[in-house]
């Protein structure tokens, strides 16, 4: 399978940099799969599961809000936070979920509702990625 260069950057670090066969990115309105030769485009991401396939192996990670630029020679993704399953703190995500649910029950302004909805989406996505990849 043809490869292309992928770079995933957060405010804190370069999360991933290397040749891949494909990447599946959580985007608004569904996930988006990028293969070599994809037409150039820019799109927004939303919290969810990121799948990177390199050397025939697919790994899953959590990816938060951000955006992606697909260029002819490489794909670059910028996100607030990206975490491998082993780096996700399950208790912290569960607490974030409880906080967001509690705030949503209080029924505040539309702006607060949107923030709490997004926080809840991040917490659910982290918990899903962690649970998919539990090593017994
Ligand atoms: P919290 O309310 O727990 O901070 P959040 O969704 O608001 O959650 P983010 O703004 O997405 O947090 O991330 C802020 C920083 O904290 C990032 O560096 C992110 O990687 C890290 N982070 C947030 N939650 C977790 C978690 N459950 N496990 C590991 N790292 C986390």
Detail the topology: elements first, then pairings:
Elements: E1 4-9, E2 14-20, E3 22-27, E4 30-35, E5 41-45, E6 48-54, E7 57-63, E8 66-70, E9 74-79, E10 82-83, H1 90-105, H2 110-132
Parallel strand pairs: 1-9
Antiparallel strand pairs: 1-2, 3-4, 3-6, 5-8, 6-7, 7-10, 8-9
Helix pairs in contact: 1-2
The structure holds adenosine-5'-triphosphate (ATP).
Q: What does the model show?
A:
The chain has a five-stranded mixed β-sheet with strand order 2-1-9-8-5, with no helix packed on it. It has helices spanning 90-105, 110-132; strands spanning 4-9, 14-20, 22-27, 30-35, 41-45, 48-54, 57-63, 66-70, 74-79, 82-83. The model has no long low-confidence stretch (mean pLDDT 95). The chain has two helices and ten strands. Helices cover 29% and strands 42% of the residues. The chain has 136 residues and is α+β, with helices and mostly antiparallel strands. A hairpin with a 2-residue loop joins strand 3 (22-27) and strand 4. The protein is globular, with a radius of gyration of 16 Å. Helix 1 (90-105) packs antiparallel against helix 2 (110-132). The protein has two domains: 4-83, F0F1 ATP synthase delta/epsilon subunit, N-terminal (ATP Synthase, domain 1); 89-135, Single alpha-helices involved in coiled-coils or other helix-helix interfaces, CATH 1.20.5.
CATH superfamily of the largest domain: F0F1 ATP synthase delta/epsilon subunit, N-terminal
- Name every ligand kind in the structure: adenosine-5'-triphosphate
Kindly name the structural category: alpha+beta
Task: Please report the first level of CATH classification, the CATH class of the largest domain.
Answer: Mainly Beta
What is the overall number of helices?
2
Q: What's the β-strand tally? A: 10
Taken as a percent bin, the fraction of beta residues is 35-45%
């Amino acid at each position: 399978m043809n490869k292309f260069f992928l770079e995933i950057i957060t405010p804190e670090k370069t999360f991933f940099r290397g040749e891949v066969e494909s990447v599946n990115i959580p985007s608004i309105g569904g996930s988006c799969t990028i293969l070599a030769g994809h037409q150039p485009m820019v799109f927004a991401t939303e919290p969810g599961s990121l799948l990177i396939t390199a050397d025939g192996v697919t790994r899953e990670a959590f990816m938060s809000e951000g955006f992606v630029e697909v260029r002819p020679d490489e794909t670059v993704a910028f996100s607030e936070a990206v975490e491998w399953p082993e780096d996700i703190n399950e208790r912290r995500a569960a607490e974030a979920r409880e906080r967001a649910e509690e705030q949503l029950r209080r029924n505040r302004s539309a702006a607060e509702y949107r923030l709490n909805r997004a926080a809840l989406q991040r917490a659910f996505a982290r918990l899903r990625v962690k649970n998919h990849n539990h090593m017994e």
